[in-house]
Amino acid sequence: MRLWQRAPWARSRAGPVHAGAARAGQVTGRAGDAADFETDMSQLGDRAPAVRALLTALAWGRGPGLPRHGIWVPVARALAAGTGQSNGPVTGKDVRFLL
Questions:
Q1: What is the pLDDT of residues 3-18, one digit of tens each?
Q2: Is the pTM of this model over 0.70?
Q3: How far apart are CA 10 and CA 26, in angstroms?
Q4: Which of 23, 61, 65, 75 could form a disulfide with 57 if both were Cys (CB 3.0 to 4.6 A apart)?
Q5: How far apart are CA 28 and CA 19, in angstroms?
């Protein structure tokens, strides 16, 4: 089961897409995908900035993602600080919430 499927705030979606299908051009986006994401983020309340920072860091990761310990949080903090979107520090508790 993928991360976003396990998340307590995730709503039912069409399902995960295999990365190979995306590379082969077999995946097309829906017009409401961004709105769906923003709706999900709005349900997180005070945790939304930290979750957004963690997901942004994860999106910049290569291969299997970022190591949970020692890397993910500092990268998320740096990216959030660089965009001016940080509403407080990202912590290991935020990672545990997201996972």
A1: 544 555 454 455 544 4
A2: no
A3: 24
A4: 75
A5: 13
